[in-house]
Amino acid sequence: MRKSIRSKRHEMVAQAIGEQRIRAGFTQYEVARRLDRHQPFMANIESGDRRIDVVELLDIAEIIDLDVPALIGRLRATR
Amino acid sequence: MRKSIRSKRHEMVAQAIGEQRIRAGFTQYEVARRLDRHQPFMANIESGDRRIDVVELLDIAEIIDLDVPALIGRLRATR
DNA sequence: GATAAATATCCGATTTTTGGATAATCGGAA
DNA sequence: TTCCGATTATCCAAAAATCGGATATTTATC
């Protein structure tokens, strides 16, 4: 946890991605590779060190089969 | 559009926000103010000069009453 | 055209991101 | 437990993006 953008909801996003990635049986390296990025890219996202925009979220979600609408629902219910 | 990473889908997000903001009757200044940001913040978002993370999108959507699930649906259908 | 409101642009200071290298951690096997 | 390979986390400096005050431009209304 290093950067400034730490909110409860940012944490939720990071955690949802990390958990679902593992559930789906991927390593950070594998997901990163599919996105043409490097492993630290995923590490930074999952640790919450890096912000993630909507388009990126959808790209990742598609790979790891993350339920984005459900995540958004939980985010909306959180302040 | 000045920065490097602009995709069709990023454009869609920017445009959806701009259009809905106007539809909802807000100025960039008003939305920015509610978010404790400055007017160029919204200008940069709507012009696609600035990426917008999921949490920010939800914050903005709540103010301008943007249908996020619908936007996401359109994003998923676009490559 | 004149004016005001709204939006876009400029730009330098600051912050964030990047990714190669490497360290630390985890998991399974023997 | 110890070893080993796989996975994840951390470091860091260069590159890129963001910030916001000031200002320019556009738009709307008269």
UniProtKB/TrEMBL annotation, chains A, B:
Domain HTH cro/C1-type as annotated: residue spans: 17-71
Put simply, this protein is called DNA-binding protein
Q: Which UniProt keywords apply?
A: DNA-binding
Asked whether the keyword DNA-binding is assigned, the reply is yes
InterPro entries per the record?
Cro/C1-type_HTH, Lambda_DNA-bd_dom_sf
SMART domains from the UniProt entry: HTH_XRE
Gene3D superfamilies in the cross-refs: lambda repressor-like DNA-binding domains
User: Matching PROSITE patterns, A to Z?
Assistant: HTH_CROC1
Pfam families, from UniProt? HTH_31
Give the species this sequence originates from. Devosia psychrophila
Keyword DNA-binding, does the record have it? yes
Q: Name one GO molecular function term.
A: DNA binding
